[in-house]
Amino acid sequence: MPELELTISAIEAETPLIRTLHLRAPAGSSLPAFTPGAHLQVSVPGLADARCYSLVSFDADPAAFEAPLAYRLGVRLEDASRGGSRYMHGLAVGDTVKVSGPKNDFPLHAAEAGERPIVLIAGGIGITPIAAMAASLQASGRAFELHYSGRSRDQLAFVDELAALAGNAFFVHADDDPASRLDLGALLDGLDTAQHLYVCGPKGMIDALIEGANTRGWPSERVHFELFAAAAPVAGDQAFEVELAQSGKVLLIPADKTILDVMEAEGCDPMYDCKRGECGVCTATVLEGVPDHRDYFLSDAEKAGGKLIQICISRAKTPRLVLDL
C-alpha cells in the first residue's frame, strides 16, 4: 500500500464525541484513488499497530473517488481507547500524519442485472464507510436504502449530509425513541433474501444482523460487514496453554491476551492482518484441543470441525491447544 505523509487541513466537530479530519498532500496534489468502503491505516506514535479509519464521502461525483484532493475521516473518541482515537482527537490543523492505503476489505459488489435495492445499515461511527457506499451508489444510479442507528439522534454525525444525499431512502433510528428505534428483525422480515446487506457498527449489531440473516436463509455472499474492533476479553475467559508443534514451544495465553499477542511478545513472527477475525490470514491448524471460535471468517462447518482457528481472536474451550505452527 502507498505510504503518505498528509497534513490536517481542516477539522470539524460533528458531535461532542465525533470529529471530522480533512487530510491533504502537503503540495496540494491529488491523492491516490479509493473505492467505497476503503480505509486508511494511520500510524500512531507509541503504538505498534496502525489504526484503521474509513474514508468518508458524501459526493456523488465519481471524481471524488478517482482523484480526491483530500481524504475525509470521521473519528469517534472512544471511552476505552487504546490510544488511537485520543491521538486523532488531539491533532490540530497543520499537523502531519503518516498513513498507508487506501485499502478496501469492505468493497461494494459489482452491479447485477435486475438487482433489488441494496440495504446499507450503520450503527454509530460505522456510518463512515457506509456513507461512501451511499455516495457511490447514488452516482451510479443504483437503488439503495440507508438505515442509520445510534443511542440518540444527537449522537449521530453527518445526518444533514446523508439526508441531502439519500433523500427518501435515508432512515434515522434512535434507541431512545421507541417510534424510530431500529428493529433488525422487522427490517429483515420486510426484505428479500436476494438483496445485498451491508452493515458496519458495534459488534452486537453485526452479530445480530448476521444471526438474523442466517435464520432467514440469506446467502452468506449477500451479507457484508466490517468491524473495526480488535479482540476484547469476555467475562469468564480463562488462561490456557498453546503448544506450537513445529518448535515444541509452550505459551501461556492469559485471559486478557490473544494467541497472536503472546506469540508476538515471545518473538514469533505469525502471519496476520486484520486482528478482528475477518480476513483469514492468521488461520492455523488445530492438532489437539477444542477451539473457542470468535471469528467471522470460518464457515459453520469449519467451526464445527474444530480443525482450524483464527489466532488473532479465538481462544480455547480446553486447557490446552496444540497448533501446527
TrEMBL record:
Pfam entry (one): Fer2
The source's superkingdom equals: Bacteria
What molecular function does GO assign, one term?
A: oxidoreductase activity
Signal sequence range: none
What SUPFAM superfamilies does UniProt report for this protein, alphabetically?
2Fe-2S ferredoxin-like, Ferredoxin reductase-like, C-terminal NADP-linked domain, Riboflavin synthase domain-like
Residue span(s) of domain 2Fe-2S ferredoxin-type:
240-325
Every copy of the FAD-binding FR-type domain together lies at 1-109
Question: What protein name applies here?
Answer: Probable vanillate O-demethylase oxidoreductase
Organism from which the protein derives: Azoarcus sp. (strain BH72)
